[in-house]
Amino acid sequence: MPALVLLGAQWGDEGKGKATDLLGGSVDYVVRYQGGNNAGHTVVVGDQKYALHLLPSGILSPGCTPVIGNGVVVDPSVLLSELSGLNERGVDTSKLLLSGNAHIITPYNVTVDKVTERFLGKRKIGTTGRGIGPTYADKINRVGIRVQDLYDESILHQKVEAALDVKNQVLTKLYNRRAITADQVVEELLGYAEQIKPYVADTVLILNQALEDDKVVLFEGGQGTLLDIDHGTYPFVTSSNPTAGGACTGAGVGPTKISRVIGILKAYTTRVGAGPFPTELFDADGEALRRIGGERGVTTGRDRRCGWFDAVIARYATRVNGLTDFFLTKLDVLTGWEQIPVCVAYEIDGRRVEELPYSQTDFHHAKPVYETLPGWSEDITKAKSFSDLPKNAQNYVKALEEMSGAPISAIGVGPGRDETIEINSFL
Ligand code: GDP
Ligand code: IMO
Ligand code: MG
After folding, report:
1. Does the annotation place 275 within a ligand binding site?
2. Confidence class of residue 388 from pLDDT cuts 50, 70 and 90?
3. 89 to each of 235, 372, 415, how far by Cα in Å?
4. Which residues form the active site (predicted)?
5. Is the peptide bond before 235 cis (omega within 30 degrees of 0)?
6. Is the same domain home to 112 and 175?
7. 19 CA to centre of ligand 3 in angstroms
8. What is the CATH number for 131?
């Protein structure tokens, strides 16, 4: 019963899409278990580039069944446009399965996300504006709308009315916006219902049966460990659990079924949106990482904040996820630096701290303590095995592995499927 979780070990955009797609050819199911279309996962196949937001990256592997689990929040208009975009490019999407228990991002959730951010002003989170937080808030408040509600108009109407009750008060009295009527929301949602129906399924049952039949299931995380609502840099986080436990709740699969947890780790660090980031660079090196790494958001087009590798964060990701392996990505981007600083600890109010502090105040004060490793100048994009890498690149990888607490089992040396060095097989 090989069930693998593949997740972001930093603040998202580590290259999860590429890593998932790479394994997609050898697995039977790829399952998104949390988040929604706040994600932007890039997959490059030959000369074709795909940006997936809601759909699991396994959708590009013909033998693989893509699944949107119960823990995901689904904007139906985005789902349909993503499907038709892929269909136009010749991708068969007919195998998609969508949990009837997944919550729907309604138009009012998107509105609330945007107005709340505007209202927060300087204190804003810098969300993607896709309605993610408000939809999860409705879920926890027990006023959410689920996919299955689309198939019972009277229930749908009652639920939308209940959800709008308080929201309209807030929208009109606090934010000075027009009230939203239940009728208009219900009409819009019903407009999607029939088109989505063929995909709706009891995904929990299907996935558990698949595992019993020894099928291979890969759980693809969105976002990353430090954006986790419980374990991330709260409140500058997303509203779900990208960490490994989220795969269990977000797909309905017990923890005893998970055999491997792979952390996707960029060879440096990036972050989009607000919040603390100890190794962030504001100089020419930061600019160079952004330019060479193409660090621009796939979903919002925002420039990503860039900085050196942070081993404190990597160790933390190993711990909270129980990582068995790392997939180190974008090593090629570091080619050309004579010296590469790596953050090995923090200095917080004069003390050296080796592990991520639980206190938000401490983390805001954390200053990186760097060790500098010698760089390399040779092109590594054609490297096929570890020994093809220049000695200094090998030493950089070995040092990161030592500091991060789990074996690095694959290395990305370019965005393409085949631009990968496999060290230990994942399957
Ligand atoms: P995700 O959200 O974790 O799937 O990552 P994104 O797709 O948002 O960002 C990762 C970017 O890095 C994408 O443009 C990928 O095509 C690219 N990428 C992934 N792995 C590598 C790699 O090893 N080297 C290079 N140069 N680019 C990579
Ligand atoms: P992938 O899956 C990077 C960030 C946003 C913001 C915070 C909350 O491509 O790695 P939200 O809209 O989720 O309420 O925003 O989380 N964020 C991401 N950053 N990669 C992502 O996804 C992200 N999804 C959300 O920028 O800071
Ligand atoms: Mg991304």
Report:
1. no
2. very high
3. 39, 45, 20
4. 13, 41, 139
5. yes
6. yes
7. 12
8. 1.10.300.10
